[in-house]
Write a structure and sequence with these properties.
Tetrahydropterin Synthase, Chain A, 4 domains, three-stranded antiparallel beta sheet, elongated
Length: 310
């Protein structure tokens, strides 16, 4: 005889299946670096779910929000204080604060990046560049603009639960004519600085030469004051000895008198007088005697004679 399941048995099987479905729907997993905002039939729970497995109301919806660092780019054509349009590319590093995920979801929504982050970034870039000159964007003023933009975005986004990490000015494209004018001006300034360096170097060289000339003058003064008749007499004796020892054809005459110095006979037979220590020429009588001795020496082959006396 065939047996049919009772209505109570069918109801029990249905209840078990329904319970299994509800249990499966209650298990939710939140990925790493995310938080889950739980929405149960239009009511948002005050707490958020951290990364991991959680059991929630089967009818609840879990909205996952990432709090990793994100990078957004913004290409802007903005005017400067002179009214020139420049192309400025800016990048923003930010992340969602996990503790503020519920407020961000309720007040801004899951599209908070395009709704508030990019909007504030473009607005602040346009506002700050309108106060800056084109030259400032091209030179060291870029760092000042970046600092102002960073502080402004922090003040606008931090209270909304979005942490600003850094602002990057990636590229600035100025009009071609303006770029050429700025480069020409910078080149002129560098040339002027180079000329100043050259002038300083020339002044130092002139001072060095003046000091050197002064030293030479002082040296000559000291040397001239140190030359005495005794020194000249001694130098004359040394010169006489060296001339007598030289192998060249000559006649060396020792000058007469107390301060007499040597006479040198030239090849043509003339006598070259040597000044005595007092600055006077050797007496004429000594020169005549030297000439006679030179004539005698030329006939006899004698090259050097004894001292002549007055």
């Amino acid at each position: 005889m065939q047996r049919h399941p009772s209505p109570g048995g069918k109801l029990g099987v249905f209840a078990v299946v329904l319970a299994a479905i509800f249990s499966f729907q209650s298990v939710r997993m939140v990925p790493p670096a995310h938080v889950g905002v739980v929405n149960v039939l239009g009511s948002v729970r005050p707490d958020v779910l951290q990364a991991g497995i959680h059991f929630v109301n089967p009818f609840a919806t879990v909205i996952e929000l990432c709090y990793q660092t994100k990078l957004v780019h913004s290409q802007n054509a903005v005017p400067t204080s002179e009214g020139l349009n420049v192309e400025l590319e800016v990048a923003l590093l930010y992340h969602l604060e996990a503790k503020s995920a519920r407020d961000v979801y309720l007040n801004i929504g899951i599209e908070f990046e395009s709704v508030i982050v990019l909007s504030q970034l473009r607005s602040e870039v346009r506002h700050l560049t309108s106060e800056a000159s084109a030259k400032a964007l091209y030179t060291s003023g870029r760092e000042i603009l970046r600092d102002k933009l960073f502080r402004s975005l922090v003040s606008k986004l931090q209270p909304r639960g979005i942490a600003v990490e850094d602002v990057l000015l990636k590229s600035i494209k100025l009009p071609e004519q303006l770029t050429h004018a700025i480069e020409l001006k910078l080149q002129t300034e560098q040339e002027s600085q180079r000329m100043e360096f050259v002038l300083i170097k020339e002044r130092q060289e002139a001072e060095r030469k003046a000091i050197e000339a002064k030293g030479l003058a002082e040296f000559q003064k000291i040397v001239s004051e140190g030359i005495s008749p005794e020194l000249l007499r001694w130098k004359g004796i040394e010169a006489t000895l060296k001339l007598a020892e030289s192998p060249n054809a000559k006649i060396v005459m020792v000058g007469g008198g107390r301060d007499g110095l040597p006479l040198i006979m030239n090849n043509d037979g003339s006598v070259s007088p040597i000044l005595n220590p007092a600055g006077h020429r050797t007496p004429a009588k000594v020169q005549e005697t030297a000439m006679e001795m030179a004539n005698t020496a030329s006939g006899s082959g004698v090259l050097t004679t004894d001292a002549a006396t007055q």
